[in-house]
């Protein structure tokens, strides 16, 4: 709505922007000798425009998910260059204040700088108040000459600055560069567990909630709900009543009566006109289907502030 374009048009523009950012990053990290400074200036301006187009809706990311996806893309590169990977991240999700796609393209570029020969690449985190330091190092280092490295570093700095993040070099005891330190802001997002047997409905919830700073976990398997709720400890559970095998009424009572899930607000979303019964059995809110995105967000906001 803020962009004044349709959802379908937005997703077309979104995909085009991702491709443009990826092309710019690749070209900036592999410049030709001809007119290099002019090329850099032009690409920096274009990159800023493309990232700005993503910033209104692609505003945060799950760091673990982004890293997992990046390592999957680069798996063949690691095999061909005899590179081993070690990853040390906290067990709980780290939701950070930078777009998923912007961070993904940056990490592909950063790790690509390191992944040029036999080495071990280590990814770890260090928490400092509201900042997450993502440390990416290679042992032994496999960097190019320092001038080329600084040119590439400037590219990543330009990209991350637009996402309110920073990147710097990590030096070893001999003052030789051995990696990168990405400073990422932690994002205040709320986790929602959505339970519905309709896959289209689950996709609708994700489309509505993800751009509005909700981390959405979905399942159509009623038997998996209790395990997911206990492990993820979501801020809110959205529950459909008409479920196969085990209906929503059973799940509502089960979740409301267990000590490890009883504190989690449950919103019932159903076509059934059973608001009073749902509230009397422990639901915190009731929303009758069909409903709009605006109505859904309003009810969730009431639960958050209430």
Q: Strand share of the residues?
A: 15-25%
Strand order of the largest sheet: 2-4-5-7-6
The structure class reads: alpha/beta
The overall strand count is 12
So, the CATH homologous superfamily of the largest domain? Histidine kinase-like ATPase, C-terminal domain
**What's the helix-strand series?**
HHEHHEEHEEHEEEHEHEHEHEH
Q: What is the terminal-to-terminal distance?
A: 26 Å
CATH topology assignment of the largest domain: Heat Shock Protein 90
Number of domains: 2
Shape: elongated
Looking at the overall shape, the CATH architecture of the largest domain is 2-Layer Sandwich
- Give the overall pLDDT as a whole number: 83
> What radius of gyration results from the CA coordinates?
23 Å
Characterise this structure.
By secondary structure, the protein is α/β, with parallel strands linked by helices. The protein folds into 2 domains: 7-185, 2-Layer Sandwich (Heat Shock Protein 90); 190-305, Response regulator (Rossmann fold, 3-Layer(aba) Sandwich). The chain contains 11 helices and 12 strands. It has helices at 7-29, 36-54, 63-73, 75-80, 100-114, 146-161, 199-209, 225-232, 248-257, 275-280, 293-305, and strands spanning 61-62, 83-88, 95-96, 119-128, 131-139, 166-171, 177-185, 190-195, 214-219, 236-239, 266-270, 285-288. The strands form 3 sheets. The protein has a 5-stranded mixed β-sheet. Strands 9-8-10-11-12 form a 5-stranded parallel β-sheet, sandwiched between helices. A two-stranded antiparallel ribbon has the order 1-3. α1 (7-29) packs parallel to α5 (100-114) and α3 crosses α5 (100-114). The two termini are 26 Å apart. The model has no long low-confidence stretch (mean pLDDT 83).
